[in-house]
Design goal:
The protein is mainly α. It has a single domain, classed as Four Helix Bundle (Hemerythrin (Met), subunit A), CATH 1.20.120. The chain is built from five helices and no strands. The chain is elongated and about 50 Å long. It starts with 7 loop residues before the first helix and ends in a 10-residue tail after the last helix.
Length: 159
C-alpha cells in the first residue's frame, strides 16, 4: 500500500533511522570499529531528529490509533519500545553502551520502525477516514517542525 501523505514525514525519518541501523551493522562487522564515535552519532541522531519523532508519535499518532481496539496492544508495544530505545539513547549519551548493546540497539530500532510502517501505518490508512488523516498529518507536521527549528550545536568530544 502506498503511504498516505499525512504519514510521509514520519516515514522519511524512519528511512534516516534505518540507514543509521544499517551503517551500525556494517561497522560492527568491519575492522577498526570505534565505539565512541558510534555512540556520539547515535546521541546526535536522537538529539536532532528522533526525540522529536517520538514526541510526535506519542502525542499525536498513538492516541488516535489507540481508539481502535485492534490497535491498542500494538500501540502499547510501540510505546514500550520507545522507553527501551530512550534507555539505549541515554546510554549512548553517557558512553556506556558496549559493542553488543550497540548491535542490540540497531536491531531493536530497525524492528520497531518496520512494525510501525508495516502494522501501525498500514492499519491507520485503512481505519482512519481521509479528512482525519489529513488533520493527523497537520498535527504531526506541527510537532516535527519543532525539531527542524531546534539549533543543535556540536558538543566537545568527551574524553
Amino acid at each position: 500500500m502506498l503511504r498516505d501523505p499525512s504519514l510521509i514525514p514520519l516515514s522519511r525519518q524512519h528511512q534516516h533511522a534505518l540507514a543509521l541501523c544499517v551503517r551500525i551493522d556494517r561497522a560492527l562487522e568491519a575492522s577498526g570499529f570505534d565505539l565512541k564515535t558510534w555512540q556520539e552519532e547515535v546521541e546526535q541522531h536522537f538529539a536532532q531528529e528522533i526525540q522529536f519523532h517520538f514526541a510526535a508519535e506519542e502525542q499525536v499518532l498513538f492516541p488516535k490509533a489507540k481508539r481502535f481496539p485492534e490497535l491498542a496492544s500494538l500501540v502499547e508495544e510501540l510505546s514500550d519500545e520507545h522507553v527501551r530505545l530512550r534507555e539505549h539513547f541515554a546510554r549512548a549519551r553517557e558512553r556506556t553502551l558496549d559493542r553488543a548493546e550497540l548491535g542490540a540497539f540497531a536491531s531493536l530500532l530497525s524492528g520497531h520502525i518496520r512494525k510501525e510502517e508495516r502494522q501501525l501505518f498500514e492499519a491507520m490508512q485503512k481505519l482512519v477516514e481521509a479528512g482525519e488523516l489529513r488533520r493527523i498529518g497537520a498535527a504531526l507536521e506541527q510537532k516535527l517542525a519543532v525539531g527542524r527549528l531546534a539549533c543543535i550545536l556540536p558538543t566537545p568530544s568527551r574524553g
